[in-house]
User: What shape does this take?
Amino acid sequence: MKRYRLSFAILLMVVLVSGPSTRAQEENPRIRVVVNLVQLNVAVTDSKGNYVTGLRPSDFSVVEDGITEKVATFAEGNGPTQRLVDIEPGEVGAGAADPAPAGTQASAPAQESAETLSSAIAGANVFILFDTSNYMYRGFVYAQDAIADFVRSLENPDKVAFYSYSRNLSRASLLTADRSEVVRGVRSTVAGDDAALYNSLLLTVKDATTCKGRKVIVVFSNGPDNSSMVPPEDVAELAQSAGIPIYMISTREARLEPVSTAVFERMTAATGGKVYFSKNWRDEKRAFASIRDDLAHLYSLSYYPKPNPNRGWRAITVKLVGSRLKKYRLRTRNGYRPQPARLSAESAASSSAEEAVGGIRPPGL
Assistant: This one.
């Protein structure tokens, strides 16, 4: 009996001691900030808008928060990617974790360096988002033709995904290398309800962030957004932080609304993309051809950020080096915000709940 009483007393003490500790761990989930490889897509043009080709890595200067960064990979258009620096274990991405405040867990990008470098050399994955709202009734078939031609003309990108939206998002064709499957998805779309552009664009950006390599989103919109719950500023900042250029082709219906025009212009400029306003189906085809041309001439730069204690918005400045190159114009994103990832059962349950209601949530930036 004494032995049993002693065992019970020890067990009771263990429960009393471990209980508060377990609860404390549940109430204080660990957070890690993930910044492994910063990818930049840079367009260089002359005063007439012609693309400047043949530039070298040494022609570019990249500065983050006043810190000069070393370019790790470099590629021009759809050409091969050059690996420029060898990263030593423990050196990669130090700016993402040093110094780490209490209650956080630093990421381990050194273990992922080989994977991130290999993904950086991949071609761009193109996500196409098509407006099938009631704004599209008139030019629906012409828009389908323009998108189908655009998909067929994309020879170099690795994969293409096709989504459509009205009030809800429809993933008609997930990322695939089979162009015919994507075209079938385009042809299967039908005109729908009100337009929730920013809700759907947020979900598209979140999908794009889960795939490796270079990502680009091309949006075809026929009018303003009239039913989203997500502000466009949050969508733009998430895309900007993830390094995903957004290209938008819109018709004169959206052009007639100054607010939508301004939003489209700010969103594309912030992410390094472009906006086009088309008057007819011929303009739409020309806009898609211009986007295809732009993708083929982008310079792809990437770098591992040096130690940087800033966990908020990090400003990026890209310039050309040398007096002869200063006359050229550059277009790229101007910064990003490291994204925290909460590691807890509660956050996982919350994510599942969001997916159940369509995944609409401002990206907590």
Observations:
- The first strand starts at residue 30 and ends at 34.
